[in-house]
Structure formats: C-alpha cells, structure tokens
Predict the 3D structure of the following.
Amino acid sequence: MRIEPSSPVPVFRQIADGIRSAVAAGVYRPGDLIPSVRAQALSLLVNPNTVQRAYEQLERDGLIISKKGTGMVVAPDSRSMAQSGVEEGVHAALTQAIATAKTAGLSRAAIDKLYRKAWEGNGNTDEGQHDQQHRH
C-alpha cells in the first residue's frame, strides 16, 4: 500500500481504501489478522491515530472485526463487500475526475484519451480482463 500525501483524498481514507482493495483482491481473507495500528503506522510513516481512524471506518463498514487480545481480523463474507466498496470508490473518483475535466473545458474525446493513457500507464493492456473474471 502506498500513501500519496499530495492527494486530495485524506490519508485515513487512502489507508481504508488500501485495506479494502487488499480484501477485495484476496490478499487478506476472512479470519486473517491485519497489521496492528502501530505496525501499519510505522510501515506507512503516518500517525497511529490516522491508522486507527481508517480501521474504525473499516469496522463500521463491516470489513474488519476487533477481537480482544488478538487484534483486527477480516470479517466473514467481507470480500464481496470490499469489492462493492472498491467499485463505489472508483466510480466516485471517476465522476470527480470527469467533472473536473468538463469544468476545464475538455471534450469527451480528450477525457477518453486521458483515461486510456492512465489505464495503460498502470501496465494494463487487456481492457476486458477484470469484467471477464467477474462473469465466470
């Protein structure tokens, strides 16, 4: 997980989104322990209170559960919830980006070109790969 300090997205949200994405991808499975607040703060070089806020959000969302004496564990059936949350987050980010581009006077073709450039800049070549995986 990487934190972008210059991002308009608050750091606690970036942390929550990173854990959510890891659960959606199966990196963390139901019952798995996620890093402690202190360990996560040290690895990301952020304040432990920021990590705590992210974990509290994930707990409210039902993705993780606090286990006394153990720590935070991934909740049962959390993968589908996490995938839905990731899709909602991506939709919100794209909606915001499109609104910003339209306000700046960019055309649909220019916005599409920027999307393709961003997609390819992330090492993606097969545009239908994600959708095909979810149809099976």
Q: What stands out?
A: The domain at 1-105 is CATH 1.10.10.10 (Arc Repressor Mutant, subunit A). The chain has one domain: 1-105. The helical segments are 11-25, 37-44, 48-60, 78-103, 108-121, 129-135. Residues 128-136 have pLDDT under 50 and may be disordered.
